[in-house]
Amino acid sequence: MNSQRGDERRKEHPRSRWEIILDILKVISEERGEAKKTRIMQKACLDWRNFQKHFHFLQERGFVGNSVDAEEGKSYCLTEKGRDLLKRLREVEGILR
Other CB atoms closer than 10 Å to residue 83's CB: what's the count? Predict the structure, then answer.
C-alpha cells in the first residue's frame, strides 16, 4: 500500500470496513507469512482497538492463519480463503475507483 496515497485518501474520507479489511490483507500478503500483529497494525495505519476488532474478525472466519516459530514467535499469513477474499476485494476496489 502506498502510504502517502493512503494518508491522502484518509484525510478525504474515513475508510469503510471493507477498505480496512483490504488494507490488513494486503499487509499480511506483502509480509509473506511472517507478519506480526504490530507490523500489520502499523502498516495498515490502524489504532490497536480497530486493528484488534478487524483482525479478530478475519481470524475467526478463517481468512488469516497463524504459525509459531520457536525463535520468531507467532506470525500470521493468509489462508486460501484469505487470498480469495483479497483478490475479490481488489476487484471491488478497482471497480469503485
Answer: 15
pLDDT lower than 50: segments of the chain: none
Angle at the Cα of 68 (from 61 to 44), degrees rounded to 5?
55
pLDDT single digits (tens) 55-66 = 999 999 999 999
- Is pTM beyond 0.90? Reply is no
Q: What's the pLDDT at 21?
A: 97
Dihedrals phi, psi of 77, to nearest 5 degrees: -145, 165
Query: What letter does residue 62 receive in the DSSP assignment?
Result: T
Beta strands (DSSP E) in 1-97 are 64-69, 73-78
Structure-block grid coordinates of residue 12: 478525504
What is the spatial distance between Cα 39 and Cα 29, in angstroms, rounded to a whole number? 12
